[in-house]
Amino acid sequence: MSLILLITNYIGIIAFSISGSMKAIEKKMDLLGVITLGFSTSLAGGILADLLLGITPPTNLIYIPYPTASFIASIVTFAFYKKFTHVSKPLIYADALGLGAFTASGASLAFSLRPDPLLVIMVGTITAVGGGVLRDILANEIPLVLTKEFYASASIIGSTIYYGLAELGVQTGFLTTLVLLLTFALRLLAIRMKWKLPNAS
């Protein structure tokens, strides 16, 4: 894994952990609930992706620095949650960066194991948004990525671009960085332009 991807993975883990923890606090969960939602939001997508790819045990359960970062971020959020309500904009950017990092890492891993288009796109997207879906389910809500905002769509586009360029032989290190930045930019653009997919209503 490239240094850029490693760093942004940690940014994503921390941002997603804070996101999950804030959701748990909003639902009046105790410390265990906060840690559980923080862990689920940040790492469950990668765990599910590994299981789909036949990687057992999943990396996020045996590479201790990842869950450690999630646990620490969740506990800090629990202890200072009032402070985090005033830093929403930086968290949005960190979340978007994490979305890009997880999309790139998931798509890269899937392509390295089997260069199949649907597999690469699905694994890239699940890695990026699967944790958020589980967070909302645990919080007894319809998953946010299925109801509003241009979020999972940015990951789908990023994963599709990864597959297309990888098939053309673009070097892996450059490609993962490119997809990370493209997904990140798409998400920020969607926030600024208030992009949403149409719904029946």
TrEMBL record:
Membrane-topology annotation of the record: Multi-pass membrane protein
Record-linked InterPro entries: Gly_transporter
Domain Glycine transporter positions: 7-81, 93-165
Superkingdom as given in the UniProt entry: Archaea
GO cellular component: plasma membrane
Predominant location category: membrane
Keyword Membrane appears in the UniProt entry: yes
Subcellular locations according to the entry: Cell membrane
Membrane-crossing segments per the record: 6-25, 32-55, 61-81, 93-113, 119-138, 172-190
A Pfam short name: Gly_transporter
Keyword terms, alphabetized: Cell membrane, Membrane, Transmembrane, Transmembrane helix
Record's protein name: Glycine transporter domain-containing protein
